[in-house]
Design a protein that fits this description.
two-stranded antiparallel ribbon
Length: 196
């Protein structure tokens, strides 16, 4: 039987494990002791989702050839948060330049900043979801608001910004960037830096 951890083959010696559930329990315990969390399981190339987990756990190990585990560690989360904090600081600075870039014919640079903003927010949401697997990250707050509330408030601002871009309303673009978006980006960076 082969075992893979984040696509790397690892050596595993089974002891008293007789079922898939025994192996999964043992692996989860090892992860907890190593400040890691399981985010994906494949058995013989089949994704084990929440709906089939209980059923598959009862199966015997006979005939099973391969276990694949995807894990994330607290260190992965910290490294990602550090990178994102730096990214949001840079984004805040570049978003301040968007109105000027749009007015001076440098729309390619402005659109690159806007694309980076969208990508970074997606990445932040993904990392925050993974971070919530660890107890100490479950109560992340930005500007004294729970994560979901902060983004519920931020979302309409981003929609207004998108609308202002479509209508080429550089005054609104500038106001939204300076007074709404940049302060929020800095708040995200502050929160991430405080966590580290």
């Amino acid at each position: 039987m082969e075992f893979y951890l984040n696509d790397e083959k690892i050596d595993v010696t089974l002891e008293d494990e007789k079922t898939v559930g025994d192996v999964l329990k043992s692996f989860e315990l090892t992860c907890e002791q190593s400040d890691a969390a399981v985010i994906g399981i494949k058995i013989d190339s089949q994704n084990i989702t929440a709906d089939v987990f209980d059923e598959v756990s009862k199966k015997s190990l006979d005939g099973i050839k391969k276990f694949e585990f995807s894990v994330v560690t607290k260190q992965n989360i910290k490294d990602s948060m550090k990178k994102l904090a730096e990214l949001f600081r840079k984004l805040s600075a570049s978003m301040m330049n968007v109105p000027v870039e749009l007015q001076s014919g440098k729309s390619a640079q402005a659109h690159e900043s806007i694309k980076n903003l969208a990508d970074s927010i997606d990445e932040f949401c993904h990392i925050a979801a993974l971070a919530s697997l660890f107890q100490e990250y479950t109560k992340i707050q930005i500007d004294s608001k729970p994560f979901h509330e902060f983004f519920a408030d931020f979302s309409p601002v981003l929609s207004d910004f998108e609308q202002a871009l479509k209508t080429n309303d550089t005054v609104s673009v500038g106001d939204l960037a300076e007074y709404e978006i940049c302060p929020r980006l800095n708040s995200i960076a502050d929160t991430l830096e405080a966590i580290l």
